[in-house]
Write the C-alpha cells for this entry.
Amino acid sequence: MFINILLSYFFYSTLTHYTQKTKYKNISNTINVLINSSLIVSTTTLYLYNFISELLTLNVLYLSIGFYINDLLINYYNDRQLILKSIHHFIGLMGILTFTSYPIQICSLFQTEISNLPFEIRNILYKQKVKFPILNTICIIIFYCLFFRLRIMRGYNITLDICDKEVPSDCFLVTSIYTLWCYWFLLISWKIFIKINEVFLILMMY
C-alpha cells in the first residue's frame, strides 16, 4: 500500500514539475486528472466484468491516494475550493480503505470518474485556446449527462445500497459524497443556465 502511494505521488509530482516548465503548465493539473481518472475507470470496469482480481483492483486504487496528496499540495485553491477538495479526497480515501467490504459499490462509485474525461478535455481546449466551439460544447453536454446519470441517479441507488448495510460510519461517508455531488450538480446547472441565457439574449438582439 505505502509503496503504491509513494510511487504514485512521485509520478504525479514529477509530471507536475515537468509540465510546469513547458507550454503546458496551465493544464498540468488537467493532465494529472485525466491520467488518474482514465486509470481508475479502466481498472474498475475490468473488475466489474471479472477480468482482474480484487487484489489488483485495490492496488491500483491505492495509486489514487498519491494523486490526492499531490493535488492538495501542488495546486492553489481558495478556502472554499480547498475545503471541498479535501472533503472529496478524504471520502475517496475512505472508499479505498473500505473497498473489501463493498467492492461492487466502491467500483461503481469510482466509475463516475469517467465524467471527468470530457470536462478535462474541454479545459485543455479552453486553456490552450484551441478554437473549436462545437467540440467544446459537445464535451460539456457529455460531461453534464454523465454527471447526472452516474453521480446523481446511480449515486443515489448506491448510497441507499450501502446505507442498507446499517454501518453508520459508511452510510455517513457515502451520503456525504452524494451530497457534495448534488451541490456540484446544482452549481454546474446554474452556470449552464446563465450561459444559455446569455446566448439567448445575444440572439434576441439580432
In short: The chain has a mean pLDDT of 90. The CA atoms of residues 188 and 194 lie 10 Å apart.
